[in-house]
Prior knowledge:
single chain; alpha+beta
Amino acid sequence: MFPGQDITDSEHVAFTRHFGEPEIFHQTSLNLRSDQVKEIFLVSNVDGENRVMKPSEPSQKQLSSSRQWHTDSSYRPMPSVGSLLHGIEISRTGGITQFINMYEVYEALPEPLRRQVEGRRARHDFSMLHRITGAPPPTAAEQAAMPAVWHPMVRRHPVSGRKSLYISSIYNDAVEGLDDAAAQGLIEELSQFAAQPRFMYRHLWEPHDVLMWDNRCTVHAVTPHDPEERRVMHRTTIVGSEPVVAA
């Protein structure tokens, strides 16, 4: 965590480049990508006209998925390395960002759950967002640009070598060898097990905090906040450099 970083979007992107190439969000239909700096993903309820958007508006419906446990860009063939989030206007009624250490979750898995994930893959599909939030579906071009992919449910970190559980509940719509109901049940059970305080860090934001995290061994979610309260957060996401390796 880097406190007190009153930086521009261009400086945010420049700092990100020290760690890798910033992603450019593939979806343009919901205006979640900055028009001025294309590498900035807008985690915001304030539009370009400085208007607080209603929860019923399409972009806000899709962003509501961030209240569920996920890891950024797991729907890509080479998922992101990490993310950097800049708190420009923060919430005082909620909006706490919570992180789960998925190394520790994997190590603590009860044996019956461990047997269900070892050697298995889960599917990660970007279009699941519209099914769980009611946001508009991706356009045909957006869907073609980001088809569903399969990743191991237990991965080995390319730097630390440690094993971690790799799921992303807002994108996981299938698990190898299981029917839809059983797959959904397994993802829910794993997510509930992971969401224990012993595995969690909760970040209470101050203005111009910048958080940086590793998407390869964490999941995160934000707590609800008053929808009439302004919350403006800008994120960069570091492009993945290699496929997920099964552990």
